[in-house]
């Protein structure tokens, strides 16, 4: 056998060959559709933060390799943010790590903390990088399905408890949750924490949408629950919080032993990244509460606009309590296959969405659900809503 007759992509990654996002974004281009598939804002974050990046670049701060753990200014700002928002104390020198976006934080945490064969429990539908990173680390993913219940997707705590085995090493949590918009309640988080303590599990918690919670929902960091500080790796992202997804600035806060472990993996992935942007994000994290409130209110108005439009178009809408995504059920439209629906939608209505089934191991459980992003300009959402009305016809 020659080296090229064997499949080039290894067995661990074979199932992740191509993403639906590439296919759908190409469809959006070729059909002139509005792309509500991929979740990136179509306007940049605060001007003063952009200017802070320009200043750092001009002043020669961060143009060469920044320190491995991140620049001290940013680590201090991350620590202060966790203290100000949640009353959680993390030592900027030993308990904070800057990463190349939350994506690298997730990868480094899993690569550092898993042995081959370890089981990782993650909620299904899950963010697409989780499955790939668990696989790269040689772990086994064990999905626990969030199921629709009275207008939102909920976690079945008995199912979660039953999923834990002697091989379970880690719970991979995401709240506010992409793609369902579910925000775990205090009671749910307390139960997750109790289980983690009882079964002595590590927890990696992806909280990149911590500032996007709506209505009565409240974001509570899992690390703040009893017994969790020493076992929890918390992940944040400037891309999501400040609408600079291209800067790829993310971070980890955790007890020093965990941060040291994650840094061991991180140093051989990117080593460092985003030098000048790190200084800008340090300033962004210190913005007054008014920024965070205005950001949330802006997204809330957009959620309501798109939710109303989707409802009018005939979808069942799961009104998200957090994130900038809306999951819908297409069955009221007489459809049941989200893949087929999303492949046809650009031709039918000039809008692109993502079939949630791609975020499931149990694809049939996700088949009728379709995700729309609302982090777009109001006029773009208005036009999308107008186009989607044709489905109701
Ligand atoms: C966008 C996203 C990430 C990745 O964040 P980056 O900082 O852009 O790497 C991680 N987790 C979830 C749930 C996301 O939606």
Describe this structure in words.
- It is a single chain.
- The strands form 4 sheets. Strands 2-10-9-8-7-3-4 form a 7-stranded mixed beta sheet, sandwiched between helices.
- A hairpin with a 6-residue loop joins strand 11 and strand 12.
- 42% of the residues lie in helices and 17% in strands.
- The chain is built from 14 helices and 15 strands.
- The model has no long low-confidence stretch (mean pLDDT 96).
- It is of the alpha/beta class and 393 residues long.
- It binds pyridoxal-5'-phosphate.
- Pyridoxal-5'-phosphate (PLP) binds next to helix 4 and helix 8.
Write the SSE topology.
Layout lengths: L19 H12 L2 E2 L11 H12 L13 H15 L9 E5 H13 L5 E6 L3 H9 L3 E6 L1 E3 L2 E3 L2 H7 L4 E7 L11 H13 L3 E5 L25 E6 H5 L6 E5 L2 H11 L8 H11 L3 H25 L2 E3 L6 E5 L8 H12 L1 E2 L1 E2 L7 H4 L2 E5 L4 H15 L1
Bound molecules: pyridoxal-5'-phosphate.
Pyridoxal-5'-phosphate binds next to helix 4 and helix 8.
Label this structure with key terms.
alpha/beta, binds pyridoxal-5'-phosphate, four-stranded antiparallel β-sheet, seven-stranded mixed β-sheet, 14 helices, 42% helix, 393 residues, single chain
């Amino acid at each position: 056998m020659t080296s090229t007759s064997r499949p080039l992509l290894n067995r661990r990654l074979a199932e992740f060959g191509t993403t639906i996002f590439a296919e759908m974004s190409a469809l959006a281009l070729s059909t002139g559709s509005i792309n509500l598939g991929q979740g990136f804002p179509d306007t940049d974050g605060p001007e003063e933060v952009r200017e802070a990046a320009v200043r750092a670049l001009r002043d020669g701060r961060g143009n060469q390799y920044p320190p491995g753990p991140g620049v001290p200014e940013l680590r201090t700002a991350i620590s202060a943010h966790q203290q100000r928002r949640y009353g959680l104390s993390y030592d900027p020198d030993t308990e904070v790590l800057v990463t190349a976006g939350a994506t690298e934080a997730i990868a480094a945490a899993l690569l550092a903390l898993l042995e081959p064969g370890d089981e990782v429990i993650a909620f299904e539908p899950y963010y697409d990088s989780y499955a790939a990173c668990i696989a790269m680390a040689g772990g086994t993913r064990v999905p626990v399905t969030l199921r629709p219940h009275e207008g939102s997707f909920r976690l079945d705590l008995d199912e979660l408890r039953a999923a834990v085995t002697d091989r379970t090493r880690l719970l991979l949590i995401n709240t506010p949750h992409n793609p369902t918009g579910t925000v775990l309640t205090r009671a749910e988080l307390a139960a997750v924490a109790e289980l983690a303590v009882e079964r002595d599990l590590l927890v990696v918690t992806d909280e990149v949408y911590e500032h996007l919670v709506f209505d009565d929902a409240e974001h509570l960091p899992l690390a703040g629950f009893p017994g969790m500080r020493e076992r929890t790796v918390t992940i944040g992202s400037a891309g999501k919080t400040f609408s600079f997804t291209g800067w790829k600035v993310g971070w980890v806060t955790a007890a020093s032993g965990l941060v040291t472990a994650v840094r061991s993996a991180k140093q051989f992935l990117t080593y460092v990244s985003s030098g000048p942007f790190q200084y800008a994000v340090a300033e962004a994290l210190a913005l007054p509460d008014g920024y965070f409130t205005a950001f949330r209110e802006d997204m809330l108005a957009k959620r309501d606009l798109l939710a109303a439009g989707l409802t009018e178009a005939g979808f069942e809408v799961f009104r998200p309590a957090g994130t900038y995504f809306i999951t819908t059920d297409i069955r009221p439209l007489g459809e049941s296959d989200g893949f087929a629906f999303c492949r046809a939608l650009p031709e039918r209505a000039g809008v692109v969405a993502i079939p949630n089934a791609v975020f499931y191991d149990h694809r049939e459980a996700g088949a009728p659900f379709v995700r729309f992003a609302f982090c777009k300009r109001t006029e773009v959402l208005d036009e999308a809503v107008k186009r989607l009305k044709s489905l109701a016809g």
